[in-house]
Amino acid sequence: MRRTVTLAMSLALLFPACGDGAPSTIVLYTSVTQDTVDAVVAAFEAEHPDVDVAVFRAPTGELSARIAADLRGDGIGADVLWLTDPLSMQQFDAQGLLLPATPDATAVPAEFREERFWGTRIVSLVVVQHRAAVAVESWDDLVVAAGDGGAAIPDPAFAGSGFAALAFFALDDRYGLDYLQRLHDAGATVVAAPGDVVTGVAEGQYAAGITIDRIARDALADGAPLQIVWPAPGAIAVYSPIAVTGASPLATEFVSFVLGRTGQETIAASGWLPIDPTVMPGDRGPQLTLDWALAFDRQQELLDAFRAIFGG
User: Fold this and answer.
1) Range of 303's domain?
2) What is the pTM of this model?
């Protein structure tokens, strides 16, 4: 039976007393959307009825605080980490928290994996625009939109997706920091998170903005007056990584399940693009990737450069 552990609960709740016939337990720490986690864990437990997955889910900042508290005690309480973006996972890898493991990751493309963690789904950063706004067809057009009716971008110091956008533009020779300066000069506004971008565009505060495709699709399904644009030369691909942090063989088995066919189909059914291209074959649209290791090494430098342009 799956249990979701909140911040207010004691870590001891994650470890039930074991006895003859008691199910084995693995602990998952995650920042992935609740419906996706619930669906994947339910599918895993259906195939492994003798395994109980205890879930601690929180936003990235709260999850990091929980892990820091763990480390002040007896060590990290998770067997598996499943996070929203590679930057957070690289931080924990640098701390030595990720264990060597050999899950079946044959379906994960090389650009969406590292030595100790593997992508599970792709979060695509796209442009969302108000239906009444001048059409945006490319990332360069977003500068025009910022001048015509305003543009919103997520804060890279708050949202991992915001940092992904910052890192991509700053490190790509086609754009560089000059692109961000042009956005600023044209009137772009920094908001907290991708959801705030969608809300602001839907309400007509901004003509367009950078957001996560699923958030925009959900708003569109609810009747928001939006258009989703896959801007040329492509959407910015952010992969959601998973890693083993506990010694139990079940941790590696869970990771293999998430990366396997059933796990990937479950992720797709929850509304995300699975990392395995054979699960949703066909044209996925052009995807732009970035060097996450370089972005991690230059994180503070990039954030400082962003603040120098946009203030804050």
Assistant:
1) 122-236+290-310
2) 0.86
